[in-house]
Write a structure and sequence with these properties.
- It is a single chain.
- β10 and β11 form a beta hairpin.
- Strands 3-2-4-1-5-6-7 form a seven-stranded parallel beta sheet, with helices on both faces. It has a five-stranded antiparallel beta sheet with strand order 8-12-9-10-11, covered by helices on one side.
- With 361 residues, the protein is of the alpha/beta class.
- The protein has two domains: 232 residues, 3-Layer(aba) Sandwich (Rossmann fold), CATH 3.40.50.300; 90 residues, CobW-like, C-terminal domain (Hypothetical Protein Yjia, Chain: A,domain 2, 2-Layer Sandwich).
- It contains twelve helices and twelve strands.
Length: 361
C-alpha cells in the first residue's frame, strides 16, 4: 500500500503570522509539491487570493483549495472530506498538504476528521503547528489586535459561545506538536526565553517551541514531523468545552496577517545546521539512545543522517524529531566509505563542539 500523504495543520489567532509562515514555506519548498487548504468564511477569501497570486515557482493555481463556507469541522462530510479526496485523487498527488485554519478555529475537531474512513488510509497528520504572536502573548493579550478578533467573532453567525481568548489559546497549545513563537525579534532575549519556557510548561511533553521572525522556519523543521496526530487524540483533547451542544464545531474567523503582501527577504539566521561525522558504531540501539540524550541536553530540533554499524553491510538511517529517534537499515554501503554522518539542526547558538564530542563519544 502506498505511504500515507502527510498533512500539516497550521493554527493560531488572527495576525499571529500563519499566512506569512506558509508563504515563506512555499518560497523555500525546493520542488516539493505542497497543496494548501485554506479555511475561510464569508466571501472575502483574502488568504487564498494572496497565495494564489504569489507567483511562487511550483505553487500552481490548483494547488490552493479554499473552504469558503468557513468552519472546517461543521462541514466535515460535505466540504472538508471531499476536498481532501479531490487532492488525493489527482494524477500528481501532492507530496505534502498544508491546512491553514481560521483564526478562532479549534484544531482538535479537524485532526479528529482525519479518522474518517474515506481518507484515513491515505493521509495522516504530520503535525499540528500553532503560531503565536510572541509580543502579544508575552504581554498577556494572546492577539496583536484583540478588537479585530472580536470584530471577526461578530461577523461569524455560527459562533454560539463567548469563549475567552485565553481558553481558545489553551486549546490551540494543547493540540500543538510544535509552537512557533513568531515576531520574536520584537522581544528581548530574556523576555523571549521566559515565554518559550512558559509555553513548554503549558504544552505536552516533547512539544517543540521555536522562535521565529516573519515566519521564517526551515522546511525540514516545519514539515516531516511524522507525528500521526489523528491516532493520538486522547493526549491532545480539548481542555475547555466550548459549545452548548454535543457536536464538534470549529469556530472561525477571517485571517489576514498584516503586511503579508510585502515580500520579506529573511534568511534563516535564527537557525543553524552542521554535519557531524564519526567512524562506525558498535551497537545501533545504544547509539539511538545516545543520540536522544544529546538532543535533549542541547535542545536540538532535528537530527538526520546515517550510521555504519560494525558487522552490518547495510546503512542505518537515523531520523530524529526532538527526542523521538527512528532508525532502520535502508541499503548496502556499496563503494561509499563506512562512516557515520549526521546533520544537526537547531536554533542558532548550539554548542557545536559539545554536540560533536557527545555524538562521537
Amino acid at each position: 500500500m502506498p505511504a500515507k500523504i502527510p498533512a500539516t495543520v497550521v493554527t493560531g489567532f488572527l495576525g499571529a503570522g500563519k499566512t506569512t509562515l506558509i508563504r515563506h514555506m512555499l518560497e523555500n519548498a525546493n520542488g516539493k509539491r505542497i497543496a494548501l487548504i485554506i479555511n475561510e468564511f464569508g466571501d472575502l477569501g483574502v488568504d487564498g487570493g494572496i497565495l494564489k497570486g504569489c507567483g511562487i515557482e511550483g505553487c500552481a493555481e490548483d494547488d490552493v483549495m479554499e473552504l469558503s463556507n468557513g468552519c472546517i469541522c461543521c462541514t466535515v462530510a460535505e466540504d472538508f472530506v471531499p476536498t481532501m479526496q479531490k487532492l488525493l485523487d489527482r494524477d500528481e498527488a501532492p507530496d505534502h498538504i498544508v491546512i491553514e485554519t481560521s483564526g478562532l478555529a479549534l484544531p482538535q475537531p479537524l485532526v479528529r476528521a482525519f479518522n474518517w474512513p474515506e481518507i484515513s488510509t491515505r493521509v495522516t497528520v504530520d503535525g499540528v503547528v500553532t503560531v503565536v504572536d510572541g509580543k502579544a502573548v508575552s504581554e498577556g493579550r494572546f492577539a496583536h489586535d484583540v478588537a479585530a478578533v472580536d470584530a471577526q467573532r461578530a461577523q461569524d453567525e455560527n459562533l454560539d459561545h463567548e469563549t475567552p481568548l485565553s481558553e481558545l489559546f489553551a486549546d490551540q497549545v494543547a493540540c500543538a506538536d510544535m509552537i512557533v513563537v513568531n515576531k520574536s525579534d520584537l522581544l528581548g532575549q530574556a523576555e523571549a526565553d521566559t515565554l518559550v519556557g512558559k509555553l513548554r510548561g503549558d504544552s505536552r511533553n516533547g512539544v517543540q517551541v521555536v522562535k521565529a521572525t516573519m515566519g521564517a522556519l526551515p522546511l525540514d523543521v516545519l514539515l516531516g514531523q511524522g507525528i500521526g496526530a489523528e491516532a493520538d487524540m486522547q493526549a491532545r483533547h480539548e481542555i475547555h468545552h466550548h459549545h452548548h451542544h454535543d457536536e464538534d464545531h470549529d469556530d472561525h474567523a477571517h485571517e489576514h496577517d498584516h503586511d503579508d503582501h510585502h515580500h520579506h527577504d529573511h534568511d534563516h539566521d535564527a537557525f543553524e545546521s552542521f554535519v557531524v561525522t564519526r567512524p562506525e558504531i558498535s551497537d545501533a540501539t545504544a547509539f539511538a539512545e545516545q543520540v536522544a540524550e544529546v538532543i535533549r541536553t542541547h535542545d536540538i530540533l532535528r537530527l538526520k543522517g546515517f550510521a555504519a554499524v560494525a558487522g552490518k553491510p547495510m546503512r542505518l538511517t537515523l531520523q530524529a524529531v526532538g527526542p523521538r529517534v527512528d532508525t532502520y537499515f535502508d541499503r548496502p554501503f556499496g563503494t561509499e566509505p563506512r562512516q557515520t554522518r549526521l546533520v544537526v539542526i537547531g536554533q542558532s547558538g548550539l554548542d557545536r563542539a559539545a554536540i560533536e564530542a557527545a555524538l562521537s563519544a
